[in-house]
Amino acid sequence: MSYGYGSAFEMDPGVLRNFITEARALGKGIRAAAAAFESDLQSTANWAGIDDEFYQETAPPDRRDVEAMIRSYYAIADAFDGITEGRFLEIQEGKRTAGNAMDAMDEMKARTDHIGEGSRKR
Question: Which end of the chain is flanked by fewer CB atoms within 10 Å, N or C?
Fold first, then answer.
């Protein structure tokens, strides 16, 4: 997208399509990172022990922190999905608007093509 002069606005569908492709890839990558993060932590899950006092003190807060981090990953991925959907709708609206403008210009041209023709009285 670019902004023209004053209040003029110009939409570049190619730039938006590229953005959508990249944003979708980022969303997928963030989801994969969330899954990998949780999976990678499995190897350290028993470092705090199993059911002793130290485990009781450290494991529940650690698990809450891990779950919060994973939720954050997914929330960021969801935000990318929302932004991507918004850009997709922007392309659709731009195409619809351009189509409507072209139709209106064709209609006006058809109305003006024959101005001045017809019977002339003197």
Answer: C
Alpha-carbon distance of 16 to 88, in angstroms, equals 8
Describe the crossing of helices 53-112 and 13-41 by its angle, rounded to 10 degrees.
Answer: 170
Dihedral sign from CA coordinates of 24, 28, 29, 30: positive
What global pTM score does this model have? 0.64
DSSP 8-state secondary structure symbol assigned to residue 44: G
pLDDT tens for each residue of 35-61: 999 889 888 878 888 888 998 898 889
Q: How far apart are the first and last CA of the chain?
A: 55
CB 90 within 8 A of CB 11: yes
